Amino acid sequence: MKVFFWNSRGAGGPSFMAAMKDFRKKHNSEIMVIAETRTSEANAIRQLRKLCLHDRCICNHPEGRAGDIWLCWTDKVPISEPLFISKQDIHVLVSEPNPDQWLLSGVYASPQYLRRILLWEEFQNITGEWSGPWMAVGDLNSITTSSEKCGGSRTFPSLASNEFKETIAQCNFLDLGFSGSNFTWTNSQFGGGYIAERLDRALANGD
Predict the structure, then answer these.
(1) From 207's CA, which of 18, 44, 57, 65 has a CA 20 to 30 Å away?
(2) Where are the domains of the chain?
(3) Where are the beta strands (DSSP E) in the chain?
(4) What mean pLDDT is predicted for residues 196-203?
(5) What is the CATH number of domain 78-207?
(6) Strand 185-186's sheet: what is its strand order?
(7) What global pTM score does this model have?
(8) Residues 164, 199: contact at Cβ < 8 Å?
């Protein structure tokens, strides 16, 4: 089963939807987690209808918008009603062809440190309640090593990175790795002001 994450970085317009449609066709993705759409509910439904996904999509609704997270799937994927939705994540159960179920968490972690702490606490609570396979995918807005950042302050390790790594350890998560650029976000500046970080990732437990 293929899970696809796309961070639109606020570019939720026609060009983004066209690119997503092409990617879905090329890679035959069955589950899609999309972050930072920053679009209205009416526009979200209109765009999803173009992908024939408007009736198989869960959005969170922070602060009156259609949602910083969309979790969409094809009609071939058995997905439960959301177990929990917050401003930073959506949790669902996915049923594979075999009897086992696994937990999928679509994440857009807050850029604000104190709000991210609430997310890490939530993840640690899930660990005590869920013992099966678990994947968390999205924009975690955190780094684990100095190699995941280029430019800006080089102070490392930071309190934020240490708490993120502690959460990964307590949840028994493994980083599923990546291909392509080492960095998934930049501040789009040049010269001495340039900063790039690896903020988007997929984590899964050993199951």
Answers:
(1) 57
(2) 1-77, 78-207
(3) 3-7, 31-35, 57-59, 69-73, 84-85, 89-95, 101-108, 134-139, 149-150, 173-175, 185-186, 196-197, 200-205
(4) 94
(5) 3.60.10.10
(6) 149-150, 196-197, 185-186
(7) 0.87
(8) no
